[in-house]
Specification:
- Helices cover 75% and strands 6% of the residues.
- It is mainly alpha-helical and 402 residues long.
- It folds into three domains: 6-48; 62-156, Receptor-associated Protein (Up-down Bundle), CATH 1.20.81.30; 160-402, Receptor-associated Protein.
- The protein has a three-stranded antiparallel β-sheet.
- A hairpin with a 5-residue loop joins strand 1 (6-13) and strand 2.
Length: 402
């Protein structure tokens, strides 16, 4: 049985006598030293990387990849070689996981492998679109230009994702807090009032009796309800990961939600046009660019529509005609694409469409937040205020009798 790979930190000098340090993966200390010798490193200190007491290394996020891409683009534009760029970024990054990833990629490139080939060995962080663009840059000899486009694309994609999360997070967070507060009131506060009311010897108002009944129900069956919701959520998430049919169904239905659905539609169009503009401008053939854009659209409805467009375009149909036939793209989009095809500037027109729709998503997210704030406050006021009124109503009635 093969031994698990360990991470070792090392310090030493390279073939040019320059001081170097870094990390390397090996199954033993002796193997780590042998690997370093093969790389021309004269190591004077090699030791196993100690695991943190709590938790592990930070995960590598898409935002990290976006920042790395911009750093590589900037360094290449400044005339720094690719290997030097990767080395400098790796040594200066605060996340050990990123340093390890870049270290492995750098060693691959130093061994003579193309960067695109090294990136393909890490599909969790670099998807096919990213690797295809890098490969195109290597073949055309314009890697620095391609990397600038990749960096811009990743930055725009992360900004759009952040806007969507912003639209979803605020109302969900407020509703979760409201649910927790309501549950605490029903389980711990309302029973205290019920004990006080039991000594009144008079019939309680109907609204108070209703709230007391809910409180008793939550106390008796709340744990089972919570377990049921947890089990349902777990099963749904598990089924969502495994079933493409379920994911497609969720994608279709989520677009029907008022306001939220419209934001997601515009976001999908923005992702599609931004991806297609980036790949098409980089010299990727339109058929291949459409395939990449289908996967990047982020929604099954638009993915299927783009794959249909790809099939029709491969058969000789103009792209704007195929887009119109899908009936999921607004007329403005198809008209701008038609103008782009006629004038031979499809990539510029796609970029303009993406910018327009990204701005619209931004405005709609801000509008949604402004709309939801008073609505959520009203709901919280009715729920929390209703519980308080129900508890004090019998006391007010006693005061009136006295």
């Amino acid at each position: 049985m093969a031994k698990a790979a360990l991470t070792f930190t090392w310090q030493g000098k390279d073939r040019n006598g320059q001081a170097r340090k870094g990390e390397i993966s090996a199954t033993s200390l002796s193997e780590a030293k042998n690997l370093l010798r093969r790389q021309g490193i004269s190591a004077n200190k090699v030791k196993k990387l100690a695991k943190p007491l709590f938790g592990g290394a930070k995960k590598i996020t898409p935002a990290d990849i976006s920042v790395i891409s911009r750093q590589i683009a900037t360094m290449l534009a400044a005339g720094v070689t690719l290997i030097q760029s990767l080395d400098m970024i790796a040594q200066g990054h605060a996340n050990p996981s990123v340093r390890k990833l870049l270290g492995e990629i750098t060693e691959e490139v130093k061994s003579g492998n193309p960067l695109s080939s090294a990136l393909r060995k890490h599909p969790l962080y670099f998807d096919d679109l990213y690797c295809d663009l890098v490969y195109t840059g290597e073949q055309s000899g314009a890697l620095e230009t391609i990397y600038d486009r990749i960096a811009t694309y990743k930055e725009k994609a992360e900004a759009l994702k952040s806007k969507i999360k912003k639209a979803m997070f605020y109302p969900i967070a407020v509703l979760v807090v409201a649910f927790i507060v309501t549950t605490i009131l029903l389980i711990f506060v309302v029973p205290q009032f019920e004990e006080i009311f039991s000594s009144f010897g008079a019939e309680l108002p109907a609204f108070t009796q209703f709230v007391l009944a809910i409180s008793r129900f939550v106390q008796d069956y709340g744990i089972f309800i919570a377990m049921g919701f947890a089990a349902t959520g777990f099963m749904f998430v598990r089924a969502h990961r495994r079933s493409q049919k379920l994911r497609d169904s969720v994608d279709r239905n989520i677009l029907k939600i008022p306001v939220i659905g419209e934001i997601l539609k515009k976001a999908s169009i923005a992702r599609f046009t931004r991806t297609l503009a980036t790949t098409f401008a980089a010299g990727v053939p339109l058929i291949g660019a459409l395939e990449s854009a289908a996967g990047a659209s982020g929604n099954a409805v638009y993915r299927d529509a783009i794959l249909y467009i790809r099939k029709e375009v491969a058969g000789g149909m103009p792209m704007y005609v195929a887009m119109r036939a899908t009936q999921v793209f607004p007329d403005m989009v198809t008209q701008m694409i038609a103008i782009g095809e006629e004038s031979g500037s499809v990539d510029e027109m796609l970029s303009k469409i993406a910018t327009i729709y990204e701005a619209e998503v931004d405005d709609m997210v801000d509008g949604l937040t402004s709309l939801l704030e008073p609505m959520i406050m009203a709901v919280l006021g009715v729920v929390i205020g209703g519980l308080i009124v129900a508890m004090y109503l019998p006391i007010f009635q006693m005061g009136n009798v006295v």
